[in-house]
Amino acid sequence: MAGRAGIVAASMTKFEAAKPYQHLMDLVLEVTDKVVEAAGISLKDDVEAVISCSQDHWDGRTISSMPIPDIVCSHLKDESKVAGDGAYAALYGAMHILSGDNKLVLVVSHCAESHTDGTMIENWSIDHIFHRMLGLDYTIGGAMQARRYMDKYKVTPEQFAKIVVKNKGNARKNVYAQEAMELTVDQVLKSRMLADPITELQKKPVSDGACALIIASEEVAKKLTPNPVWITGAGNCYEFHNPGDRDLAECDALVKAAKKAYKMAGIGNPAKDIDLVELSENYAYQEMLWTEGLGLCGKGDGGKLIDSGKTQIKGELPVNPSGGLLSGIPVTVAGMTRVAEAVWQLQGKAGEHQVQGAKRAVVHGCDGLCGQMHCVLVLEKGGK
Amino acid sequence: MKPKVQEELIYLDMTLKLPFKWRTGETMGEFFRELKENGILYANQCPTCGRAFCLPKTVCTRDHTRCTERSKWIPVGPKGTLVTFFMAEQSFLLPTTGEMLKIPFAVGIILLDGAMVTLQHQLEETDTEKIKPFMRVEAVIKPKEERKGNIYDIVHFKTINE
Question: Of A282, A346, B107, B143, whose Cβ has the fewest other Cβ atoms within 10 Å?
Answer without folding.
Answer: B143
